From TrEMBL:
<keyword id="KW-0539">Nucleus</keyword>
<dbReference type="GO" id="GO:0005730">
    <property type="term" value="C:nucleolus"/>
</dbReference>
<comment type="similarity">
    <text>Belongs to the NOP16 family.</text>
</comment>
<dbReference type="GO" id="GO:0042273">
    <property type="term" value="P:ribosomal large subunit biogenesis"/>
</dbReference>
<protein>
    <recommendedName>
        <fullName>Nucleolar protein 16</fullName>
    </recommendedName>
</protein>
<dbReference type="Pfam" id="PF09420">
    <property type="entry name" value="Nop16"/>
</dbReference>
<dbReference type="InterPro" id="IPR019002">
    <property type="entry name" value="Ribosome_biogenesis_Nop16"/>
</dbReference>
Length: 180
């Protein structure tokens, strides 16, 4: 059965279609997406973005908030007369205070290894000790890691869980003594 006539032909790019205008209008209709929860709770939808940020003590444009002073030829900074007179009143200072407090908190370590990798490393150490060539030939080495790759995985385990590694090595020593 023959194919339909127009299906296989190449579609031509329409140069006359203004895609920027279509994209801009779609963006204009969308409400602003606010990532920070403190700003989201203090946001007033009846006001503009600039008004909302000014009330919170935040700046819409970082170049206007901290302008780079223009230097004269002699090296003296030029003074701008209009910048100091237009200070805005901060009506919601708690937003900035909460954001500063949140930023000052220490970051939690999110370094974790998968349970499978931990079990794999423990199995290799338990059965082969420090012999990485034997580990590479082991039947549980499903991913065919080289001795260097296995050594690297063991070192990662040592670095991420030093206390657990020490306890594991201490538990292995009595087993080795019983065998001899």
């Amino acid at each position: 059965m023959p194919k339909a006539k127009g299906k296989t032909r190449r579609h031509k790019y329409s140069y006359n279609l203004n895609r920027k205008r279509l994209y801009r209008s779609a963006r204009r209709r969308a409400a602003p997406r606010i990532a920070c929860s403190h700003i989201r709770h203090a946001w007033d939808p009846s006001k503009s973005v600039a008004q909302n940020l000014a009330e919170m003590g935040l700046s819409e444009d970082p170049n206007k908030a901290l302008p780079i002073p223009k230097k004269l030829v002699s090296g003296v900074e030029a003074e701008s007369s209009g910048q100091q007179s237009g200070k805005k009143i901060v009506r919601k200072p708690y937003v900035v205070n909460e954001m500063e407090y949140e930023a000052s908190l220490p970051e939690k370590k999110s370094n974790t290894l998968s349970r499978d990798l931990i079990d794999y490393v423990r199995y290799m150490i338990q059965n082969h000790g420090e012999n990485y060539k034997e580990m590479a030939r082991d039947e549980k080495n499903y991913y065919q890691d080289t001795p260097k790759q296995i050594k690297r995985k063991i070192n990662v385990y040592k670095n991420f869980y030093p206390e657990e590694y020490k306890e594991f090595m201490a538990s292995l020593k009595p087993e080795k003594m019983d065998v001899q």
